[in-house]
Amino acid sequence: MNVGPITRQNRALVLGASGGIGSEVARQLQGAGWQVRALRRGGAPAMAAASAIEWLDGDVLSREAVVHAAQGCAVIVHAVNPPGYRRWAQVVLPMIDNTLAAAAAVGAAVVLPGTVYNFGPDTFPVLREDSPQQPLTRKGAIRVELERRMRAASEHGVRSIVVRAGDFFGPLVGNSWFAQGIVKPGEPVQIVRQPGTRGVGHAWSYVPDVARTMLELIERRETLPAFATFHMAGHWDADGSQLVDAICRVARRHGLKPQIKPFSWALARAISPFVTTLRELMEMRYLWSEPLQLDNARLVRELGREPHTPLDEAVEATLMGLNCLGAEGRAPKAA
Predict the structure, then answer these.
(1) C-alpha dihedral over 214, 220, 221, 223, to 10 degrees?
(2) 160 and 34 belong to one structural domain
(3) Could you report the per-residue pLDDT of 189-202, keeping only the tens digit for each?
């Protein structure tokens, strides 16, 4: 596709471009004619040899590196988080500070995939953009402060967009409940673990839909409020069983015979002192104890609808990407 000359108006810096949401946003930006730049220690990953992304060697914890990478960019997508929930308290806020400083230096807008960690049960069962943010956890308090800093920066000319969604899942999303707690990547589906209690609703979001929503809002950034927050309804699992049932349904179509078993919270608690990821997940267990739904009315008013892939289609693509459907459903290797 001939997209014309690259200008500042169609150049974006994606921080976290090797992660699940960052890589999908980068892919969709490129498909829409944007030139995408990414920052990573060590430069381009080996699997990116055939990618058109411009990879720069640098660390998001270095303000100089982020400001340098942002030169000539109209948008910075801040999709970076410490892997496995490690060192949140030490690095999450310095990273957003560097992104905001870079955005101020070059006149770019900042786009953030938000989390539900910001909210406590006092706002359940339905989260709206103006719901009070009174988190129960350390990670939630950090995310509240992160968005406070974005809002403060917007008062000094740095435009920001926050797109908040439920638990992510998708073909390239390895750091997720879907891939770490419900199925086992790299093996045909045999056991499907159910983290929540049947009857307790839960919000899920298919990452390509989230990326499409971010892209459409990026295109409208000049007409949005200086600090704009939008919630996605995603896939609302009204009784807590629809996602695991869809996994089983898709797996059976591929000749597999999965069984549903409850996620062992007791085992996770027992070994969590020795496994950082499990320890951090245990802190978020309250999100599985009560129904949690996101109201997308503001997003629908802005876009006219919410990008939405049918559940079975989204689940099949995710299982294929995780190589969980056997030889016939194996995803092709990335270039």
Answers:
(1) -150
(2) yes
(3) 999 999 988 889 99
